[in-house]
């Protein structure tokens, strides 16, 4: 099962390449922010995004992100599998 998982942007790495570093449950990985960081909307450090296969798919408010993380934790194995995929992913 592939899930979108909320993560908090902890660093904008390269605005030209649209790369940021996000943290999900203690795991930090580079993500592509091209779908949500553009002329109509921008991301800043501290913003929450929904991440799927290394891409920020949408911006979330903190309450929605935390509620989603709580619901995902209840899924158990599917949530742990998604975290493992995030741990092993690389976007450079």
From TrEMBL:
Q: This protein's superkingdom?
A: Bacteria
* UniProt record, GO biological process: protein maturation
For this chain, one GO molecular function annotation is:
carbon dioxide binding
Family that this chain belongs to: Belongs to the HupF/HypC family.
Checking NCBIfam families in the record gives: hypC_hupF
What is the protein named? HypC/HybG/HupF family hydrogenase formation chaperone
By which gene is this protein encoded?
hypC
């Amino acid at each position: 099962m592939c899930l979108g998982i909320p993560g908090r942007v902890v660093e904008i790495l390269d605005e030209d390449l649209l790369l940021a570093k996000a943290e999900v449950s203690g795991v930090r990985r580079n993500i592509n922010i091209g779908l949500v960081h553009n002329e109509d909307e921008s991301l800043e450090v501290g913003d929450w995004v929904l991440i799927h296969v290394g891409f920020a798919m949408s911006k979330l408010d903190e309450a929605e992100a935390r509620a989603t993380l709580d619901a995902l934790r209840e899924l158990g194995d599917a949530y742990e599998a998604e975290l493992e995929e995030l741990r092993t992913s690389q976007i450079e």
